[in-house]
């Protein structure tokens, strides 16, 4: 992998994923779908049996807390589209959007297989296998300002970067769970999960400060470790500093990489639903409690020193004073002399990102209800809160729909929706937690291009299930599902 490729990946991860942001589960939670047990294992659908194979569930959720799509792609001269890095754009307009602590995160979850069925009067059992990839980056305010606007305002100052962090995991999850009634009003659910890590990266930042020198170079005082498990090989110079990194393409092309079972972990989801009255119910859950222990193809990059860094102002590329290759050379030449390699190949842990969910649902009729939902996401070095109000219509498992309003990411214009319908034994569904409400039109070469004006969220889930039966018709099963 050459320098240009490495830096392209860095900038794509840091900047291009930023316009997309999202929450998870608000629209799906109160729908009559088998997938709602992913957010609370006590929830269960009204059908007595379901089966999912292949594309039973695909979910993409990408997230940030500090800028929108309209901050990145904007209207330029002569009806053109420019980015926030263009010389014509006032970078201060973009910098006004950033927060003291900024984060970028993304998650993809693909259900490869799932099954759920009644196992007696009050017991429901489910099993699913999910392919999951998650990335999370925490960016302090000052590192963004130095990188985009330059370091003139920071000369002679020391910048605390202890909250800079990053993590990436690609793993497979196999979970077995149950949902059971205890008494007439309480349903408890739990799910045990085996985790198999495929590739992982974890940055352990114990201490990191940046001082801008009088000659505008940067001095880093670092005590951090980058732990890597994956199909990458590092090559070193005579002083044992990283000289180059190469992706092992042969392993990527083999099933050995994707079926790796050497990096194992465990996880758990727990939840409960309690019917206060015939119309009012409350629920609570804690999901994604767990970790993965990485053992295979380990590389430990350590930096416990003070080192010089020539600069990383990406505006130099935009205004033409440097080429991208020159910027890449400057960055990598500085970085490769700051990290040493541990020969221990020390195993490391990565942790799942737990979510606490609290809900309340009031059934106005047997088919229509109003739901409240609070979710707290514990990500790398930050906590995300969201609160939702939803209107939910469930006609057995023949038809289910929801409309959701969510306050999250310091935004109050998040509108989500979900739709599911059954055609024979097939149940199709699509759910999104953010629909752009305001749009701009940009004309480029006589073509109108619609762009969401304040869109900072992407969260979509879709798929289909094979479903049989409809327990909602049975009186004894009424407490089993929130509708």
Summarize the structure.
The protein is 11% helix and 55% strand. The chain contains seven helices and 25 strands.
Name a few traits of the molecule.
483 residues; mainly beta; two-stranded antiparallel ribbon; 11% helix; disordered C terminus
Note down, in words, how this protein is organized.
The protein is mostly beta strands and 483 residues long. It contains 7 helices and 25 strands. Strands 1-4-5-7-8-12-13-17-18-19-20-21-22-25 form a 14-stranded antiparallel β-barrel. The chain has a two-stranded antiparallel sheet with strand order 2-3. The chain has a two-stranded antiparallel ribbon with strand order 10-11. A hairpin with a 3-residue loop joins strand 7 and strand 8. Helix 1 crosses helix 7. It is globular and about 70 Å long.
Mean pLDDT reading? 80
Number of strands: 25
For the biggest β-sheet, the strand order reads: 1-4-5-7-8-12-13-17-18-19-20-21-22-25
What percent of the residues sit in helical stretches (DSSP H or I)? 10-25%
Rg calc: 25 Å
The outline comes out as: globular
Low-confidence stretches: 1-23, 473-483
The number of distinct helices, counting runs of at least 4 residues, comes to: 7
Structural class: mainly beta
Proportion of β residues? Answer: over 45%
Largest sheet: 14 strands, antiparallel, barrel
Distance between the termini: 52 Å
């Amino acid at each position: 992998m050459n320098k240009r490729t490495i830096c392209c990946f860095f900038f794509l991860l840091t900047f291009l994923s930023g316009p997309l942001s999202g929450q998870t589960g608000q629209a799906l939670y109160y729908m009559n779908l088998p997938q709602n047990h992913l957010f609370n294992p006590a929830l269960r659908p009204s059908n007595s049996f379901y089966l999912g194979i292949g594309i039973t569930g695909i979910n993409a959720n990408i997230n940030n807390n500090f800028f929108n799509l309209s901050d990145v792609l904007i209207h330029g001269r002569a009806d053109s589209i420019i980015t926030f890095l263009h010389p014509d754009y006032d970078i201060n307009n973009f910098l006004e959007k950033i927060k003291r602590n900024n984060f970028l995160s993304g998650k993809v979850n693909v259900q490869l297989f799932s099954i759920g069925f009644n196992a007696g009067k009050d017991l429901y059992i489910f099993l699913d296998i999910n392919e999951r990839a998650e990335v999370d980056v925490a960016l302090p305010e000052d590192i963004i300002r130095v990188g985009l606007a330059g370091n003139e305002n920071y000369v002679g100052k020391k910048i605390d970067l202890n909250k800079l962090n990053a993590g990436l995991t690609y793993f497979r999850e196999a979970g077995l769970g149950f949902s059971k009634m205890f008494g007439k009003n309480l349903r408890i659910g739990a799910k045990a999960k085996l985790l198999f890590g495929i590739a992982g990266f974890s940055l352990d930042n114990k201490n990191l400060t940046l001082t801008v020198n009088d000659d505008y170079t940067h001095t880093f005082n670092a005590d951090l470790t980058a732990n890597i498990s994956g199909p990458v090989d590092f090559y070193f110079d005579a002083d044992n500093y990283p000289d180059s990194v190469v992706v092992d393409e042969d392993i990527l092309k083999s099933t050995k990489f994707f079926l790796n079972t050497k990096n194992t972990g465990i996880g758990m989801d727990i939840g409960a639903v309690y019917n206060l009255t015939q119309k009012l119910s409350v629920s609570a859950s804690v999901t994604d409690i767990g970790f993965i222990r990485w053992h295979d193809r380990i590389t430990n990059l350590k930096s416990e020193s003070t080192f010089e860094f020539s600069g990383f102002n990406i505006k130099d590329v935009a205004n033409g004073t440097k080429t991208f290759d020159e910027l890449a050379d400057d960055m990598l030449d500085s970085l490769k002399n700051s990290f040493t390699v541990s020969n221990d190949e020390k195993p490391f842990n990565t942790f799942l990102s737990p979510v606490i969910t609290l809900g309340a649902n009031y059934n106005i009729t047997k088919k229509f209800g109003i739901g409240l939902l609070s979710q707290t996401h514990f990500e790398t070095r930050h906590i995300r809160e969201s609160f939702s109000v939803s209107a939910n219509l469930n006609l057995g498992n023949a038809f289910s729909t929801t409309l959701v309003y969510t306050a999250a990411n310091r935004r109050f214009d998040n509108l989500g929706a979900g739709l599911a319908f059954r055609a024979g034994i097939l149940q199709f569904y699509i759910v999104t937690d953010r629909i752009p409400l305001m749009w701009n039109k940009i004309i480029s070469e006589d073509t109108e291009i619609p762009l969401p004006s304040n869109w900072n969220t992407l969260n979509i889930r879709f798929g289909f299930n094979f479903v049989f039966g409809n327990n909602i018709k049975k009186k004894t099963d009424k407490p089993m599902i929130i509708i």
